[in-house]
C-alpha cells in the first residue's frame, strides 16, 4: 500500500500523517525554512547594528560640527584680540612719540632756564661785588 501511495506522490511522515512530498524533501524544506528564519534574524540584527552605528555617527558628526564652530569662534576672537593689541600698540607708540616731544621741549626749556639761572647768578654776583 505504501508503494501505491508513493506512485501518486503521497507519503507517510513519522507520525503517520499523509504528506504530498517525500520525507527527505520535507526535511530539507524545514531546514531551509529554519535557515531562512536564522538569516532573517541575522539581517534584522545587522540592520539594528547599522542603525545604532548611524545614530552614533550622526551624534559624532554633530559633535564635530559643534567643535568646528567653537574653533572658528575662538579663531575669530583671537584675530579680534590681535587687532585690538595692534591698535593699542599704535596708540601707545603715538603717546610715546608725543611724550618724547614734550620731554625734548622740556629739556630745551630746562637748558635755557639753567643758562638764564647761570646768567642771573653771575649778574647777581657782579652786582653784589659792586656794592
TrEMBL record:
Q: From its record, what is one biological process in GO terms?
A: cilium assembly
Q: Keywords of this protein's UniProt record, alphabetized?
A: Cell projection, Coiled coil
Concerning InterPro entries, the annotation shows:
FT20
Q: What is its main location?
A: other
What are the record's GO terms for cellular component?
centrosome; ciliary basal body; ciliary base; cytoplasm; intraciliary transport particle; non-motile cilium
Indicate where this protein resides in the cell: Cell projection, Cilium
Highest rank taxon of the organism: Eukaryota
One family from Pfam that matches here is IFT20
Q: What is this protein called in UniProt?
A: Intraflagellar transport protein 20
Organism of derivation: Danaus plexippus plexippus
The lineage, from the top, is: Eukaryota, Metazoa, Ecdysozoa, Arthropoda, Hexapoda
